[in-house]
From TrEMBL:
This is G-protein coupled receptors family 1 profile domain-containing protein. Its main location: membrane. The chain crosses the membrane at residues 28-57, 69-93, 113-133, 154-172, 214-235, 272-296, 316-337. GO terms for cellular component: membrane.
Amino acid sequence: MDESNPVDQAKLPVLQQDVDIYLSKKTLALFMSVMAVVMVVVCLVGSFGNIISLIILFNQRMRNQTNYILAALCISDTLFLGHSIIFIAINFYRQSNPLDGEALRSYVYPILGAWSSVVTARITSSLTTLLCVQRFIAVFYPMRAKQLCTKRKTIISIVIIFILTALVFIPFCFKYETTQVMDNSNNTKQIMNKSALYMRNIKFFSVYGTVLNILFRFSPLAIIFILNIIMIIVVRRTCQQRRSMSFNDSESSLRLTSRNGKHCSHTDQHHITIMLITVSTVFFCCILPGAINSIATHINRSYTPLGKYKNLYTCISTSTFFLETINSAVNFIIYMFMSRKFRLLYKEIFCCGHGKYYRKISISSLKEKFRWTSKRGKSGGKQHDSFERKTVSDINPLKNGNYSAGEREWQSDINGECWELQNKHLF
């Protein structure tokens, strides 16, 4: 079970000369042409979204453990999309200029195709697994998470993933080599062939590829599947409990829950958990078909790039590669839809808000802090622990204060603003 390269599997859009019994050459040619155009659009849009995500996630107000992983994920996804664009362009060039195109591919593919594109894809797998594990710890072991999921340990884990993944896949750099051959017209042309080193050590490469396939493809899928199922069950149970409490609790008890901060904190963490579950679920759904396709090539020897069902193999492999491309391109959309803080910061940076959107939260928090500080100073006594977290719901007496025109612009919204800024784990 070799660790195969998705770009190698797709081989866009070069076709075999023969026709298998399931898919004709004409149908495959049409499919590959459409997929190539669609993939270029997805790669460009996804890369643009990932760059925007990086700008937002690197903002000083977004620096926490979870966002460090999401930023690293944006980097690996963008690199993967870049490789995809390069090889789609090369294969189009091969169609228009076969000799020069094949020569270019023979020089580029052994490094960019057989090694670096696989490395970026597997780094994405490892980072998504790290994200899922870290969230699982935060949900089920919140006290231990403070020691296990520190910023320093998160950064070290990310660096180890990048370096270790790049190193363990180095043998695949020597799998192919450029060879000069003579065609029927006695013209010299350059093609890509399996290297002599690979041919002498086929068994080693086969076993080594199988081990890497298990570690970097199947193990992350299994871990993410198990942890996501557990977290989804907990999230669903929590939603049911909150719905039950909302019917049973009176208005005063709900306000008290909001004042002590527990309701807000739980709700915010709940939203973060749902967003991260969505990210890992999209990854699972997009990567699983490629893993199954990899297994199928070893079950049926005719289902290979040179086998009896080569056209079918090319079609399905291209589809699974397209799903991996989708996975690397959609995270920005998930963040925009599911993270309120991400949306507000996006508006502030890219929509000429000049801080207006984010100040709604930050100034509200300052008013809230002033309100509670004054109240505690007048009382002279220590407040009960349940009232230590301050919320926007307690700043009504300050609404008629002397504020600037910019602040009065959103006074009516102030009670509805999120007080999550007090929480360091906010996404």
